[in-house]
Amino acid sequence: MGRKLLLEKAHIEGIRYYDTYRSNGGYAAAEKALKSMGPEGVLEEVKKSGLRGRGGAGFPTGMKWSFIAKPEGVPRYLVCNADESEPGTFKDRYLMEFIPHLLIEGLLISSFTLGANAAYIYIRGEYAWIPDILEQAIAEAKNKGWLGKNILGTGFDLEIYVQRGAGAYICGEETALLESLEGKRGNPRIKPPFPAVKGLWGCPTVVNNVETLAAVVPIVNIGGDEYIKYGIGKSTGTKLISACGNINKPGVYEIEMNISVEEFIYSDEYCGGIKNGKRLKACIPGGSSVPVLPANLLLKTAKGETRMMTYESLNDGGFATGSMLGSGGFIVMDEDQCIVRNTLTFARFYHHESCGQCSPCREGTGWMKKVLHNIEYGKGKMSDIDLLWDIQRKIEGNTICPLGDAAAWPVAAAIRHFRDEFEWHVKNPDEALTRNFGLAHYADPIPVPEPAATV
Amino acid sequence: MAAIQFSEEKLNKVKEIVARYPEGKQKSALIPVLHLAQEEFDGWLSSDTMDYVASLLQLKPIEVYEVATFYSMFNLKPVGKFLFEVCQTGPCMVSGSDQIIDYIKNKLGIGVGETTPDGMFTLKTVECLGACGYAPMMQLGKHFREHLTPARVDEIIAECRAKAN
């Protein structure tokens, strides 16, 4: 059994409520941080832990925190990004729903470290029942003296507020989130200035994902040196993976970042294998934005090494033969699934969610959707495949925020690895409407080049 | 139609929301207050409702319109008493959401974006709601309905009809 740091106690009856959380060791980290470590001490441990942003980008959290500007007399803010909207991702929801005090405790320690006296949890509007759970946890914590004025007699004040979004994937991008929190359309800002200098209402702000903030609690409890023993290399600690698609046991799993992709999919501890005894065709390992991989490149890298559930191993081979850990939205597709159709749903998603500021994204996502629709519905031409490639190239890197890249990558990867399936749709328009291309050769072993003899 | 006006209780809620932000930043309350208004005034935002919210928060009406039109949860047209918002993005699609959407269409005799003649049900398709592991799914009011099957859809429809009576 893998060791757990976040969800270890998530199954305890009543852990959603303060008394149970507290009697199971909750708020011990907050006490330790506020009473004995001080802001510098916490920052040091978070840096040592190698914790990387769990929202998808994987940026080192300690470094992000150290960038926050501290001008005299200007308030600082901590904002928790609970906008979780990346298709395939539903881990933060689980954490907030079942063990909300872990997030509140993480917010308390992190706000203390950053010197923020107000923190906002920006949660996607569709998770409409979760603000009640969070607000109850906040009220309980405040009642017990963990929030409010002069917490634990340290002179530190903190209020935490919950703000609901209203249906916009783009608000998961940190500057769009800040715009939305200011009561505006979620149009991303041009960076620099970064939020650490000019964020919420023009004040220094740190925006962190739910899971990142929760992970601060075990880091304070066990120390950064101990935390790095979970995982491999720069993939330290544990990661929540939300697994979905054609598997026997979809759900949220906490993994140590030292297991193989194969173990994650097939072991009974995690996904429990492919549903209905089917074969694995493809997988998107880190949320809809990251490249889809065929079975043969998913389980082993192009060099023939075992692919691991780490930031580095999933990225091995770059985008040519690898993918990304991203947000941990793990989407598994069996042999009956159609890559063209799946890519079409993603293109439609990104078109729907584009904020419309940048032409390449606003227009390009719409074109990709139309072209993919034609191919899927038997009206495509061979040249459409190259056209799609061309459009995605012109979106990538040419937009204010990463939504453009996120829209381009899935299309690029689908064509890169599944071009035969696209061509089959074009050549067999009638069949394309009634059946799928199937597994084809996508699980066949890839010949591994012999290593050159060393002299 | 009665004039658009929050109850005393809701007005206190608005005050409580505005107090979450620093002085002069009441614009931040806009999205929460629009949610409140939509719940209160028949599940959608008419231009009268939006103007009312603007006056409450001392904003220009255009500041409210541009926000209300950006976010997909705000309905700018009347909707049925029960709004079925069925997810159709990749993870739900590979788990059979297309068939569920077709089933609901046939069962209710309406297309996507339409409302039944009795004003009871509206069907919408939406993009990923973060329930991928429990697909296919839909949002119904404040909650998610997950692991949908035709039988489950029948139950939900019956449940709604019972609630309406």
From TrEMBL, chain A:
Query: What are its cofactors?
Result: [4Fe-4S] cluster; FMN
GO molecular function list:
4 iron, 4 sulfur cluster binding; FMN binding; metal ion binding; NAD binding; NADH dehydrogenase (ubiquinone) activity; oxidoreductase activity; quinone binding
The reaction(s) catalysed by this protein are: a quinone + NADH + 5 H(+)(in) = a quinol + NAD(+) + 4 H(+)(out)
A Pfam family matched in the record: NADH_4Fe-4S
Entry's EC annotation: 7.1.1.-
Keyword check for Phosphoprotein, yes or no.
Answer: no
InterPro entries in the cross-refs: NADH-UbQ_OxRdtase_51kDa_CS (IPR001949), NADH-UbQ_OxRdtase_suF (IPR011537), Nuo51_FMN-bd (IPR011538), Nuo51_FMN-bd_sf (IPR037225), Nuop51_4Fe4S-bd (IPR019575), Nuop51_4Fe4S-bd_sf (IPR037207)
Which residues does UniProt assign to the signal peptide? none
Keywords on record: 4Fe-4S, Flavoprotein, FMN, Iron, Iron-sulfur, Metal-binding, NAD, Oxidoreductase, Quinone, Translocase
Q: Which NCBIfam families match?
A: nuoF_fam (TIGR01959), PRK13596.1 (NF010120)
What the record says about family reads: Belongs to the complex I 51 kDa subunit family.
> Which PANTHER family does this entry report, sorted A to Z?
NADH-QUINONE OXIDOREDUCTASE SUBUNIT F
Reported function? NDH-1 shuttles electrons from NADH, via FMN and iron-sulfur (Fe-S) centers, to quinones in the respiratory chain.
Please give the name of this protein: NADH-quinone oxidoreductase subunit F
**Which species does the entry assign this protein to?**
Chitinophaga solisilvae
Q: Which gene encodes it?
A: nuoF
TrEMBL record, chain B:
GO MF entries: 2 iron, 2 sulfur cluster binding; active transmembrane transporter activity; inorganic cation transmembrane transporter activity; metal ion binding; monoatomic cation transmembrane transporter activity; NADH dehydrogenase activity
Q: How is the cofactor bound?
A: Binds 1 [2Fe-2S] cluster.
Q: Which SUPFAM superfamilies match?
A: Thioredoxin-like (SSF52833)
Record's keyword annotation contains Cytoplasm: no
Q: Which UniProt key words apply to this protein? A: 2Fe-2S, Iron, Iron-sulfur, Metal-binding, NAD, Translocase
Keyword Ion transport belongs to the record: no
GO cellular component entries: catalytic complex; membrane protein complex; organelle envelope; organelle membrane
UniProt record, GO biological process: inorganic cation transmembrane transport
- Where [2Fe-2S] cluster binds, per the record, is at 87, 92, 128, 132
Database matches in NCBIfam families: nuoE_fam
Q: What protein name applies here? A: NAD(P)H-dependent oxidoreductase subunit E
Source organism? Chitinophaga solisilvae
